[in-house]
Amino acid sequence: MKIVFQSYAFHPAVGGIESSAQIFIREFINAGHEIRVHTLTSLGTQQEINTVPVYRNPSLPQLLNDFKWADVIYQHNPSLRLSWPAIASSTPQVISIRTWMRRSEDNSISLLDRLKRYYVSRQTVISNSQATADDLDFFSTVIQNAYDDRIFNNTTESDTRDGLVFVGRLVKDKGCDVLIDALVQLNSSNIRHNLTIIGSGPEEATLKQQSSQLGLTQQINFLGQQSPSTVAQILNQSKYHIIPSRWAEPFGIVALEGIACGAIPIGTDQGGLVDAIGKCGPLFPANDSSTLAALIEELDQTPPLYRQYLEEQQHHLIQHSPKTVAQRYLDIFEKASKK
Q1: N-to-C CA span, the chain
Q2: pTM to 2 decimals?
Q3: What whole-number percentage of the chain has pLDDT above 90?
Q4: I want to staple 261 with a disulfide (CB 3.0 to 4.6 A). Which of 46, 74, 201, 235 is the partner?
């Protein structure tokens, strides 16, 4: 197939949408398909890493020409700015929903969101979790996200692992302060774990101050932002991967990365994290440091439960391998192109 791949967020920007776009492009090429990319992200001073044509801020003639060339137009999260010229094209569109189609500030649905929802509802739609599908008022096929299995692999025996790890932006929504509070409660129960925090953001100074005030500076190591390979190495050293998000994550690829590296995920019981973690780890209510501490204590003291979660990992990961997920997308592209 000839596929126009549209993603408003793209390399060299960094994030879940950007990294998953690279995974899909790689797998689509490996499956023998032709790709042209449209994005609103400028290259800046970076070098292009893709071997396929990438059109940044494409002109209207370029959009119309590529829509005519393609068998299917795929949008890696909706963008009206990139897709509106397709109204004049008969080429079918497939749109994946990778985050909430509502305002992040107050969870409301704005006029622009309503317009976008109406446009998307007229296309073939894929949601990346049951939670994002349930947030829509029209049908979508749920295909959960893939993770990069070239980087994130289990290379460590479970009995050599130790400690907790957090991976993510240091913002209030990610709930890292809840994890630090849970560490205090574990200490009060004579359960001592070291914590590695990977990531940077506006809350970093506040979190370091919290750690200092609680007397945890010897237990917590702030590493800042790290390369994916370094993240994988640290996940392989860690026993528990904590995802204490206050915000309902649309999915949470970071959970898959931790599972792939053999850590037990412990995340909040909302949004797409429920799908991302599956049966591989326990869940707790957002903002509830006491329950988080209790879950870690239970896992420490109940080896059969710990092993039960480990035994679920391989089956869970097979469903999220890049090749498996990409093929499910390609099957939908094929059906859409024949309508």
Answers
A1: 14
A2: 0.93
A3: 93
A4: 235
